[in-house]
Amino acid sequence: METAIIGREEEIQILEKLLHTQQTELLAIYGRRRVGKTFLIKTYYKKHTIFSCSGQYLGKKNEQLLNFAEQLSNCFPGRKPQPVPATWQQAFKQLEECVDSHQQKGKKVLFFDELPWLDSHKSGFLSSFSYFFNMYASQRSDLVVVICGSAASWVISKVINNKGGLHNRVTQRLRLLPFTLRETELYLQHRNIQLGRYQLLQLYMVLGGIPHYLNAVQRGKSAAQNIANICFSKDGALAGEFNNLYAALFSNPQNHMQIVKALAQKNKGLTRSELLKTGKLPTGGTITTVLDELTESGFVEKVYPFEKLEKNALYRLADAFSLFYFRFMHSHAGAGKTGWPGNEGGKAYTTWCGYAFENICFTHAWQIKKALQVAGVQSSQYSWYKPGTQTEEGAQIDLLVDRADNCINVCEIKFSQTPIAIDKKYAAALQNRLMLFRQQTGTRKTLLLTFITTYGLTDNAYKQQLADNEVTMEALFG
Fold first, then answer.
1. pTM, full prediction
2. What is the pLDDT of residues 161-171, one digit of tens each?
3. Integer angstrom CA distances of residue 264 from 182, 246, 309, 355
């Protein structure tokens, strides 16, 4: 099958622009593991890349240098044999000589993949790389130097926000996000896999938009069959993925995994103080650092409350696979014999569906705004939560779209295999929620009750009375 880039339209525009500038560019591309960073760079820049190398996971300095030397030989086959460099200074000097000898016209790409792994302990890689870029690469006008890493927090702290030789040297940063639902649909269609959108939604709720995970989907099988094979069979593609995922990204992943585990148990999310109360996490700056790293890497999303108070900001588990792992794969609790209930239903399955669908709505907020015809209106997204007391029940609104045109979309998110019917009890709960929200926040804006569902609402008197807007799953594929 022909290698093709699916989606990634905005990213491609950025990559193309860098080929036509009159200066050397330093592009930092980052994003979670398996999201397709290497594929995008190698595929789009294939004709322009004259050198590429990759860090070796847990590789020592001498191993990284040996790999670097081998890549120099592969990329510049006409070059005279050189001794394996003993230091990174020597390695970059050899690279300079190779680039100088290259006669290709136009922009030339140098690709350094998994940069955090190249920068092994006390190797001096980063200082040598910064010297190479400052004293050689930046003096030319025909290079695009691409650095890539799955450890997003490392790329940001060590390169983008570098206080030393690389300070303000990155000319373009690019965070590669998982596929949207539409890109997921296009990707599977490219592989001749035709599934209805409800089935695609089910797959997305487990696999997210991670291309590597989606590559394991088999033609001719339902979403439930594919999930059972990929996650629960002995040789399933994701059977051992969870531990590998975090270990490859973070040097001490225990705290990261503990936070993810805690968030997987709470649908509404947890504040920083609530996370600390779990009693299994370090206090002080460590938890802040870990939360920042998880957020930058795309595993956790920080949602601000309507009141915009930092202390009340909620951390939600945004990674679909991690949520699914703790709900069903970790201990097979609440699942069938295979660990996966498929469409059997049950409380654990229903609860997971609701949270997973909410997460999809958060990541597809632009598509929701477009469906509501407010994509051009300035707006912000918030959540709202009122804790319960001994005498009053609590209330929660998962998604608020606070608009500059003096309106707020109060979003009610529901996942179901059939249209949702609003009955008398549900209608009373909705009205009470709106009343509590207005009382507690004091907002004078118009509240528009907006339903985001799979198949819409059943048309009845309560719908006519309460539903200001409807958005179905079809809009999420926009």
1. 0.90
2. 888 888 889 99
3. 26, 15, 23, 10
